[in-house]
Amino acid sequence: MDLILLLFDAVLLITLLALALAAILSSDPRRAVMLFIAFGLWLSLVWARLGAPDVALAEAAIGAGIGGALMLAAARRAARQQTSDRGEPS
Amino acid sequence: MNRDLSLLIGILVALLAVVLLWVFHSTLALDPGQRLASLAMERLPETGVSNPVTAVLLNYRAYDTLLELGVLLAALLGIWSLGPPRPGFQRAGPALAAMVDWVVPLAILTGGYLLWVGGHAPGGAFQAGALLGAAGVIMRLAGHANAGLPSETWQRWLVVLGAGVFTLTGLLLAFTGYGFLTYPPGQAKWLILLIETAATLAIGVTLAAAYVGGRPQPTAPPPPPLVTSASAEADR
Amino acid sequence: MIAQFLYGGAGILLFALGLWSLLVHAPLLRKLIALNIMGAGVFHVFIAIAHRGDALPPDPVPHALVLTGIVVAVSATALALALNSRLEQGENEPEPASSPSPGPRIHMQPALSTEPSSKGATHP
Asked: Is B20 inside any structural domain?
């Protein structure tokens, strides 16, 4: 029983770190932001496991939701600028 | 960046992480001593709420929350000082518009529920405010350029509402003989609910205005003469 | 105890990952994501410390601190993105005073690393 719980914790944490690594290492801005949103939602899952439902709710709504929406708008502009830069050689 | 340099930075950061892990491990091995948790739980019946996190946020450490609303206000003022917002997105098609007509009232309703339930279960002003802000984000994504926010004057009043009501309540309590933000016994619940309602509105409007990302325009552009958009305007 | 160390350690690793990315990657959006991941690592350590085993209720004080921190982090992110957007607007607009200065100013940055060759690059 205890071992199974430990295994569950390990899976939660390894996925969390893998999502963070993927968000950090992707160079496409939109991809990075989407991975960051996934990371935030997974983080709120982990916090719900740690007995912090208030904080998990806030992270899912504010950190991943509103922060992600803000970053996605910026990433869209960045991606558009990248393509326009590639189109006209400067 | 240079590949060798980034590798060097990686090694240095990894060393820092090892040191931090070692410190954390040795801290855990120590006796935790007197923790605040037992004290917080002991006095919980006197706070007027039964959710310990809300009690900490709005009773034990109300200063923190007041200052945090101040930080939120300062960030929004910084965003507003950078000039007018970018133009909004194009109007949503019928399917998205119908979904928005459903989702936005539901988000507002859920926000109200979270605000009320925060006294005794997970929830509270921040989560409720985030839902209001999310409703604004959805409306901007569906083509309402000002995210469903009211006129500029109203926005300015609503944004300072949270910190304003918080400070006024604290000052009023200080003048009537209790300390600054020390609630009189028996009335804590209603005072907390008043502050939380104001904070929810302020947080929601601030987050939506931050998503719009520019100083509100004094005169809103007239809505285009579409039947669907007119009904959506009337809904809010 | 071991679970607490695992969760707290994951928070420290997140902090380190974010710090590395913040220092190494140049684009502002990536730096911002890195900064947010650093913050998430710090919050994670707080929540791990607040968790006192599955039997006891968790400590509410760190929870409230993290709740405040999340809102502050998002407002800082929003301000940084607005500044970034303003910066982009400034870059896209042509410089109003069209002095011959843009040429040398662009050459300033490579001159830091390749001091002798920059002189040779000025003449055709």
From this structure: no
Residue type, C67: L
* CA–CA distance, C52 with A44 (Å, rounded to integer): 18
Question: C102-114 burial by CB neighbour count: b if 16+ within 10 A, else e?
Answer: eeeeeeeeeeeee
Whether CATH 1.20.1640 fits C2-87 = no
Residue indicated by tokens 């907390």: B192
What is the interface pTM, i.e. ipTM, of the complex? 0.86
Of B220, B83, B206, B218, nearest in space to B146 by CA: B220
Beta-carbon neighbour count of residue C71 at 10 Å? 26
Q: How far apart are CA B58 and CA B235, in angstroms?
A: 33
pLDDT tens, residue by residue, B109-138 = 999 999 999 888 888 889 999 999 999 999
B51 neighbors B114 (Cβ within 8 angstroms): no
Q: Which of B147, B150, B144 is nearest to B229 (CA)?
A: B144
For residue C114, pLDDT beyond 90: no
Interface contacts A/C by beta carbons within 8 Å: 118
The residues, any chain, with a CB within 8 Å of residue B44's CB and separated by 6 or more, are B50, B52, B55
**Residue C82 contacts B, CB cutoff 8 Å:** yes
Residue B169, chain A, CB below 8 Å: the answer is no
Return the residue of B nearest to A52 by Cα: B122
| Arithmetic mean of pLDDT, A71-78 | 87
Residues of A in contact with B126 (CB under 8 A): 58, 62
What is the chain B residue with the closest CA to C9? Answer: B21
The CA angle C57-C63-C64, to the nearest 5 degrees, is 125
Domain extent, residue B188, equals 49-235
Domain segments of chain C as ranges = 2-87
Q: Are B170 and B66 in contact (CB under 8 A)?
A: yes
Distances from the Cα of B202 to the Cα of B46, C70, C115, angstroms: 27, 16, 54
Residue B122 is nearest to which of A53, A65, A73, comparing CB atoms?
A53
| Number of compact structural domains in chain B | 1
SS3 C55: coil
Identify which of A61, C80, A34 has the alpha carbon closest to the alpha carbon of residue B132: A61
